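Posting this for the archive.
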Amino acid sequence: MTAYQFFGLRVAPFDGRPDPRFFYRAAGHAEALATLQYAVHAAKAGVVLLGDSGTGKSLLARQLADENAARRACVWVHGIGQPADHVDVTITPPRSEDPAALGTIERPLREWWRQPVSAGDGTIVLVDNADGLNETHWNEIVGVVTRDQVAGRPLTVVLLGLPALATTLAAGRLARLRRRVFRTFMLGRLSAEETRAYITHRLAVAGGPDARAIFTEPALDLVHRLAGGNPALINQVCDNALIDAFGDERRQIDVTHIVGTIRAITGGLVRQPLLPSPTRRAYRGGGNGNTAVEPDLAGADVNIGMPPTPPPVVERPAADVLMTPPPAPTVERTLDQRIRVLESNLNQALARIRTTRRPVLPSEPPPTAPDEDTPPVVHIDAEVLDTRPQ
Protein backbone atom coordinates (compact mmCIF):
# COMPACT_ATOMS: atom_id res chain seq x y z
CA MET A 1 0.00 0.00 0.00
CA THR A 2 1.27 3.45 -0.93
CA ALA A 3 0.84 6.64 1.07
CA TYR A 4 -1.91 8.00 -1.17
CA GLN A 5 -3.78 4.69 -1.14
CA PHE A 6 -3.72 4.81 2.67
CA PHE A 7 -5.82 7.99 2.42
CA GLY A 8 -8.22 6.47 -0.12
CA LEU A 9 -6.73 8.20 -3.18
CA ARG A 10 -6.46 6.63 -6.64
CA VAL A 11 -3.32 8.51 -7.72
CA ALA A 12 -0.64 10.60 -6.06
CA PRO A 13 -2.24 14.05 -5.66
CA PHE A 14 0.91 16.11 -5.18
CA ASP A 15 3.25 14.78 -7.84
CA GLY A 16 5.62 17.52 -8.96
CA ARG A 17 5.36 16.80 -12.69
CA PRO A 18 3.09 19.12 -14.74
CA ASP A 19 -0.16 17.22 -15.24
CA PRO A 20 -3.10 19.05 -16.88
CA ARG A 21 -5.54 16.90 -14.89
CA PHE A 22 -4.54 18.80 -11.73
CA PHE A 23 -4.62 22.26 -13.29
CA TYR A 24 -6.29 24.62 -10.80
CA ARG A 25 -7.81 27.79 -12.24
CA ALA A 26 -6.77 30.33 -9.66
CA ALA A 27 -7.48 33.94 -10.60
CA GLY A 28 -3.97 34.68 -11.89
CA HIS A 29 -3.54 31.32 -13.63
CA ALA A 30 -6.94 31.57 -15.35
CA GLU A 31 -6.07 35.06 -16.65
CA ALA A 32 -2.68 33.87 -17.87
CA LEU A 33 -4.25 30.92 -19.72
CA ALA A 34 -6.83 33.20 -21.33
CA THR A 35 -4.02 35.48 -22.52
CA LEU A 36 -2.15 32.55 -24.07
CA GLN A 37 -5.31 31.20 -25.72
CA TYR A 38 -6.15 34.52 -27.30
CA ALA A 39 -2.59 34.98 -28.58
CA VAL A 40 -2.75 31.57 -30.27
CA HIS A 41 -6.22 31.98 -31.80
CA ALA A 42 -5.38 35.48 -33.03
CA ALA A 43 -2.06 34.25 -34.48
CA LYS A 44 -0.03 36.74 -32.47
CA ALA A 45 3.68 36.36 -33.12
CA GLY A 46 4.80 36.17 -29.51
CA VAL A 47 3.70 36.26 -25.88
CA VAL A 48 5.82 36.18 -22.71
CA LEU A 49 4.86 34.47 -19.45
CA LEU A 50 7.07 35.28 -16.46
CA GLY A 51 7.02 33.87 -12.94
CA ASP A 52 9.16 32.52 -10.13
CA SER A 53 10.28 28.92 -10.24
CA GLY A 54 7.40 26.63 -9.31
CA THR A 55 4.53 29.04 -9.96
CA GLY A 56 3.06 26.81 -12.70
CA LYS A 57 4.38 28.14 -16.02
CA SER A 58 5.13 24.69 -17.45
CA LEU A 59 1.71 23.39 -16.40
CA LEU A 60 0.05 26.34 -18.15
CA ALA A 61 2.02 25.57 -21.30
CA ARG A 62 0.98 21.91 -21.11
CA GLN A 63 -2.64 22.94 -20.66
CA LEU A 64 -2.40 25.25 -23.68
CA ALA A 65 -0.86 22.48 -25.80
CA ASP A 66 -3.55 19.97 -24.83
CA GLU A 67 -6.37 22.38 -25.64
CA ASN A 68 -4.90 23.03 -29.11
CA ALA A 69 -3.70 19.50 -29.89
CA ALA A 70 -6.58 18.77 -32.26
CA ARG A 71 -5.66 21.34 -34.92
CA ARG A 72 -2.25 22.81 -34.11
CA ALA A 73 1.22 21.35 -33.95
CA CYS A 74 3.26 22.05 -30.83
CA VAL A 75 7.00 22.56 -30.91
CA TRP A 76 8.68 22.33 -27.50
CA VAL A 77 11.95 24.07 -26.81
CA HIS A 78 13.62 23.53 -23.43
CA GLY A 79 16.06 26.30 -22.65
CA ILE A 80 18.15 24.19 -20.27
CA GLY A 81 20.53 21.58 -21.71
CA GLN A 82 20.57 22.83 -25.31
CA PRO A 83 23.65 22.25 -27.49
CA ALA A 84 25.82 25.33 -27.80
CA ASP A 85 25.57 25.65 -31.60
CA HIS A 86 21.87 24.99 -32.32
CA VAL A 87 18.42 24.42 -30.81
CA ASP A 88 16.86 20.96 -30.47
CA VAL A 89 13.06 20.84 -30.47
CA THR A 90 10.39 18.23 -29.75
CA ILE A 91 7.51 18.30 -32.25
CA THR A 92 3.99 17.01 -31.59
CA PRO A 93 1.89 16.97 -34.80
CA PRO A 94 -1.82 17.86 -34.58
CA ARG A 95 -4.17 14.94 -33.93
CA SER A 96 -6.13 15.68 -37.09
CA GLU A 97 -3.26 14.39 -39.22
CA ASP A 98 -2.64 10.80 -40.26
CA PRO A 99 -2.52 8.66 -37.08
CA ALA A 100 0.65 7.05 -38.40
CA ALA A 101 2.36 10.44 -38.11
CA LEU A 102 1.36 10.97 -34.49
CA GLY A 103 4.00 10.93 -31.82
CA THR A 104 6.81 13.25 -30.83
CA ILE A 105 9.71 13.94 -33.16
CA GLU A 106 13.05 15.37 -32.04
CA ARG A 107 15.17 17.36 -34.48
CA PRO A 108 17.03 20.67 -34.74
CA LEU A 109 14.95 23.80 -35.09
CA ARG A 110 16.63 24.76 -38.39
CA GLU A 111 15.74 21.41 -39.93
CA TRP A 112 12.13 21.61 -38.81
CA TRP A 113 11.74 25.10 -40.24
CA ARG A 114 12.77 23.96 -43.74
CA GLN A 115 10.02 21.31 -43.85
CA PRO A 116 6.76 21.94 -45.72
CA VAL A 117 3.92 23.58 -43.85
CA SER A 118 2.01 20.97 -41.84
CA ALA A 119 -1.76 20.62 -41.87
CA GLY A 120 -3.84 22.34 -39.25
CA ASP A 121 -4.50 25.88 -38.10
CA GLY A 122 -0.95 26.80 -37.21
CA THR A 123 1.92 26.03 -34.87
CA ILE A 124 2.68 26.86 -31.25
CA VAL A 125 6.35 27.12 -30.28
CA LEU A 126 6.60 26.73 -26.49
CA VAL A 127 9.99 27.84 -25.16
CA ASP A 128 10.21 26.67 -21.55
CA ASN A 129 13.03 28.00 -19.35
CA ALA A 130 13.75 30.62 -22.00
CA ASP A 131 16.04 32.42 -19.56
CA GLY A 132 18.53 29.55 -20.10
CA LEU A 133 19.04 30.20 -23.83
CA ASN A 134 22.33 31.61 -25.10
CA GLU A 135 22.89 34.08 -27.93
CA THR A 136 22.98 31.42 -30.65
CA HIS A 137 19.68 29.99 -29.47
CA TRP A 138 18.07 33.44 -29.43
CA ASN A 139 19.18 34.07 -33.00
CA GLU A 140 17.29 30.96 -34.11
CA ILE A 141 14.17 31.94 -32.15
CA VAL A 142 14.25 35.42 -33.66
CA GLY A 143 14.67 33.88 -37.13
CA VAL A 144 11.59 31.70 -36.62
CA VAL A 145 9.46 34.66 -35.48
CA THR A 146 10.56 37.08 -38.21
CA ARG A 147 10.10 34.59 -41.07
CA ASP A 148 6.65 33.25 -40.17
CA GLN A 149 4.82 35.57 -42.59
CA VAL A 150 7.20 34.73 -45.42
CA ALA A 151 6.68 31.01 -44.82
CA GLY A 152 2.92 31.42 -44.92
CA ARG A 153 2.02 29.58 -41.69
CA PRO A 154 0.39 31.01 -38.57
CA LEU A 155 2.86 30.68 -35.70
CA THR A 156 2.88 31.85 -32.08
CA VAL A 157 6.00 31.72 -29.92
CA VAL A 158 5.33 31.47 -26.17
CA LEU A 159 8.34 32.38 -24.02
CA LEU A 160 8.25 31.10 -20.44
CA GLY A 161 10.90 32.00 -17.91
CA LEU A 162 11.95 33.60 -14.65
CA PRO A 163 11.41 37.36 -14.14
CA ALA A 164 15.03 37.90 -15.23
CA LEU A 165 13.89 37.02 -18.76
CA ALA A 166 12.44 40.53 -19.04
CA THR A 167 15.97 41.94 -18.72
CA THR A 168 17.23 39.58 -21.43
CA LEU A 169 14.45 40.63 -23.82
CA ALA A 170 15.31 44.30 -23.23
CA ALA A 171 18.69 43.82 -24.93
CA GLY A 172 19.16 45.67 -28.20
CA ARG A 173 19.93 42.51 -30.16
CA LEU A 174 16.41 41.21 -29.45
CA ALA A 175 14.61 44.34 -30.64
CA ARG A 176 13.05 42.44 -33.58
CA LEU A 177 11.62 39.85 -31.21
CA ARG A 178 10.49 42.43 -28.66
CA ARG A 179 8.50 44.35 -31.29
CA ARG A 180 6.49 41.22 -32.05
CA VAL A 181 5.56 40.39 -28.44
CA PHE A 182 1.81 40.73 -28.04
CA ARG A 183 1.74 40.82 -24.25
CA THR A 184 3.90 40.06 -21.20
CA PHE A 185 2.15 38.44 -18.24
CA MET A 186 3.61 38.08 -14.73
CA LEU A 187 2.33 35.00 -12.92
CA GLY A 188 1.85 35.50 -9.19
CA ARG A 189 1.46 33.15 -6.23
CA LEU A 190 -1.60 31.75 -4.50
CA SER A 191 -3.32 33.51 -1.63
CA ALA A 192 -4.14 31.71 1.62
CA GLU A 193 -7.68 30.95 0.40
CA GLU A 194 -6.40 29.79 -2.99
CA THR A 195 -3.85 27.54 -1.29
CA ARG A 196 -6.66 25.74 0.55
CA ALA A 197 -8.72 25.49 -2.65
CA TYR A 198 -5.65 24.28 -4.55
CA ILE A 199 -5.02 21.44 -2.08
CA THR A 200 -8.72 20.55 -2.06
CA HIS A 201 -8.79 20.49 -5.88
CA ARG A 202 -5.81 18.16 -6.19
CA LEU A 203 -7.23 15.79 -3.57
CA ALA A 204 -10.60 15.76 -5.36
CA VAL A 205 -8.97 14.95 -8.72
CA ALA A 206 -7.08 12.12 -7.03
CA GLY A 207 -10.39 10.75 -5.73
CA GLY A 208 -10.07 11.86 -2.14
CA PRO A 209 -12.21 13.82 0.31
CA ASP A 210 -12.11 17.50 1.18
CA ALA A 211 -8.73 18.86 2.25
CA ARG A 212 -10.01 19.55 5.77
CA ALA A 213 -10.69 15.84 6.21
CA ILE A 214 -6.99 15.08 5.72
CA PHE A 215 -5.29 18.32 6.82
CA THR A 216 -6.18 20.18 9.99
CA GLU A 217 -6.83 23.90 9.76
CA PRO A 218 -3.52 24.80 11.49
CA ALA A 219 -1.70 22.44 9.11
CA LEU A 220 -3.21 24.17 6.06
CA ASP A 221 -2.26 27.57 7.48
CA LEU A 222 1.30 26.39 8.08
CA VAL A 223 1.60 24.94 4.57
CA HIS A 224 0.67 28.31 3.07
CA ARG A 225 2.99 30.20 5.41
CA LEU A 226 5.96 27.97 4.61
CA ALA A 227 5.35 27.64 0.86
CA GLY A 228 4.32 31.26 0.39
CA GLY A 229 1.63 30.33 -2.15
CA ASN A 230 4.13 28.66 -4.51
CA PRO A 231 2.32 25.66 -6.07
CA ALA A 232 5.49 23.58 -6.47
CA LEU A 233 6.46 24.07 -2.82
CA ILE A 234 2.90 23.29 -1.73
CA ASN A 235 3.13 19.99 -3.62
CA GLN A 236 6.52 19.26 -2.08
CA VAL A 237 5.34 19.88 1.49
CA CYS A 238 2.00 18.07 1.13
CA ASP A 239 3.53 15.04 -0.59
CA ASN A 240 6.05 14.59 2.20
CA ALA A 241 3.35 15.16 4.83
CA LEU A 242 1.25 12.33 3.35
CA ILE A 243 4.23 10.00 3.62
CA ASP A 244 4.97 11.01 7.23
CA ALA A 245 1.35 10.56 8.28
CA PHE A 246 1.24 7.20 6.51
CA GLY A 247 4.33 6.13 8.44
CA ASP A 248 2.63 7.15 11.70
CA GLU A 249 -0.62 5.46 10.64
CA ARG A 250 -2.46 8.73 11.18
CA ARG A 251 -5.51 9.50 9.05
CA GLN A 252 -5.17 13.25 9.58
CA ILE A 253 -2.17 15.50 9.02
CA ASP A 254 -1.44 18.11 11.67
CA VAL A 255 1.31 20.68 12.21
CA THR A 256 3.62 18.03 13.66
CA HIS A 257 3.78 16.32 10.28
CA ILE A 258 4.29 19.65 8.48
CA VAL A 259 7.22 20.54 10.75
CA GLY A 260 8.70 17.07 10.27
CA THR A 261 8.27 17.50 6.53
CA ILE A 262 10.34 20.68 6.47
CA ARG A 263 13.06 18.98 8.47
CA ALA A 264 12.98 16.08 6.02
CA ILE A 265 13.19 18.38 2.98
CA THR A 266 16.15 20.34 4.36
CA GLY A 267 17.76 17.27 5.95
CA GLY A 268 17.86 19.10 9.26
CA LEU A 269 21.07 20.79 8.11
CA VAL A 270 19.64 24.26 7.53
CA ARG A 271 17.75 26.15 10.21
CA GLN A 272 14.27 27.09 9.04
CA PRO A 273 13.20 30.24 10.93
CA LEU A 274 9.69 30.12 9.46
CA LEU A 275 8.89 27.04 11.52
CA PRO A 276 6.72 27.52 14.61
CA SER A 277 8.42 29.19 17.55
CA PRO A 278 9.67 27.12 20.52
CA THR A 279 6.92 28.94 22.42
CA ARG A 280 4.06 26.45 22.39
CA ARG A 281 0.75 27.57 20.97
CA ALA A 282 -2.60 25.82 20.91
CA TYR A 283 -5.12 26.11 18.09
CA ARG A 284 -8.78 25.34 17.80
CA GLY A 285 -9.00 23.95 14.33
CA GLY A 286 -10.68 21.60 11.95
CA GLY A 287 -14.18 22.40 13.10
CA ASN A 288 -14.22 19.26 15.24
CA GLY A 289 -13.49 20.93 18.57
CA ASN A 290 -10.10 19.25 18.91
CA THR A 291 -7.06 21.20 20.00
CA ALA A 292 -3.95 21.01 17.83
CA VAL A 293 -0.72 22.15 19.42
CA GLU A 294 2.40 23.25 17.62
CA PRO A 295 5.36 21.09 18.57
CA ASP A 296 8.08 22.42 20.80
CA LEU A 297 11.17 22.67 18.62
CA ALA A 298 13.40 22.91 21.71
CA GLY A 299 12.52 19.32 22.58
CA ALA A 300 10.42 20.00 25.68
CA ASP A 301 7.10 18.29 26.29
CA VAL A 302 4.02 19.77 24.68
CA ASN A 303 1.29 20.82 27.06
CA ILE A 304 -2.08 20.08 25.49
CA GLY A 305 -4.61 22.88 25.81
CA MET A 306 -2.24 25.77 26.60
CA PRO A 307 -3.79 29.18 25.85
CA PRO A 308 -2.52 30.90 22.71
CA THR A 309 0.40 33.29 22.97
CA PRO A 310 1.23 36.26 20.73
CA PRO A 311 2.86 35.33 17.41
CA PRO A 312 6.64 35.09 17.64
CA VAL A 313 9.04 37.39 15.84
CA VAL A 314 9.95 35.72 12.55
CA GLU A 315 13.56 35.97 11.50
CA ARG A 316 14.80 36.37 7.95
CA PRO A 317 15.21 32.91 6.37
CA ALA A 318 18.51 31.58 5.12
CA ALA A 319 19.19 32.18 1.43
CA ASP A 320 19.46 28.50 0.57
CA VAL A 321 16.12 27.46 2.07
CA LEU A 322 13.37 27.15 -0.53
CA MET A 323 10.72 28.89 1.49
CA THR A 324 9.18 32.32 1.28
CA PRO A 325 10.16 34.98 3.87
CA PRO A 326 7.36 36.45 5.98
CA PRO A 327 5.66 39.66 4.88
CA ALA A 328 6.94 43.02 6.12
CA PRO A 329 5.50 44.14 9.49
CA THR A 330 2.53 46.50 9.41
CA VAL A 331 3.28 50.13 10.26
CA GLU A 332 1.47 50.92 13.50
CA ARG A 333 1.59 54.72 13.28
CA THR A 334 1.05 57.09 10.42
CA LEU A 335 3.77 59.51 9.37
CA ASP A 336 1.90 62.53 10.81
CA GLN A 337 1.54 60.85 14.20
CA ARG A 338 5.22 60.01 14.31
CA ILE A 339 6.15 63.61 13.41
CA ARG A 340 3.95 64.99 16.22
CA VAL A 341 5.57 62.63 18.71
CA LEU A 342 9.04 63.70 17.61
CA GLU A 343 8.12 67.41 17.88
CA SER A 344 6.78 66.87 21.40
CA ASN A 345 9.94 65.06 22.49
CA LEU A 346 12.09 67.82 20.99
CA ASN A 347 10.17 70.59 22.79
CA GLN A 348 10.50 68.78 26.11
CA ALA A 349 14.24 68.36 25.59
CA LEU A 350 14.68 72.08 24.77
CA ALA A 351 12.70 73.05 27.89
CA ARG A 352 14.97 70.93 30.08
CA ILE A 353 18.07 72.52 28.49
CA ARG A 354 16.80 76.06 29.16
CA THR A 355 15.97 75.24 32.77
CA THR A 356 19.41 73.77 33.37
CA ARG A 357 21.38 76.66 31.84
CA ARG A 358 19.44 79.50 33.62
CA PRO A 359 21.10 80.68 36.92
CA VAL A 360 18.70 80.77 39.84
CA LEU A 361 19.34 83.40 42.60
CA PRO A 362 19.10 82.28 46.24
CA SER A 363 16.16 84.62 46.89
CA GLU A 364 14.46 83.65 43.67
CA PRO A 365 11.64 81.10 43.98
CA PRO A 366 11.92 77.96 41.88
CA PRO A 367 10.53 78.28 38.37
CA THR A 368 6.94 77.30 37.95
CA ALA A 369 4.85 76.76 34.90
CA PRO A 370 3.31 80.11 33.92
CA ASP A 371 -0.41 80.51 33.73
CA GLU A 372 -1.67 81.40 30.28
CA ASP A 373 -3.88 84.27 31.70
CA THR A 374 -1.21 85.80 34.00
CA PRO A 375 1.42 88.08 32.44
CA PRO A 376 5.00 87.10 33.10
CA VAL A 377 6.78 88.74 36.09
CA VAL A 378 10.01 90.59 35.22
CA HIS A 379 12.65 90.87 38.02
CA ILE A 380 14.71 94.09 37.81
CA ASP A 381 17.75 94.73 39.98
CA ALA A 382 17.37 97.94 42.07
CA GLU A 383 21.03 98.90 41.65
CA VAL A 384 20.49 99.16 37.93
CA LEU A 385 17.65 101.71 38.40
CA ASP A 386 19.57 103.93 40.94
CA THR A 387 20.68 106.97 38.92
CA ARG A 388 21.78 109.15 41.86
CA PRO A 389 25.37 110.36 41.73
CA GLN A 390 27.74 108.33 43.78
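Residues 27-187 form a domain with the Rossmann fold fold (CATH 3.40.50.300). The CA atoms of residues 52 and 186 lie 9 Å apart.
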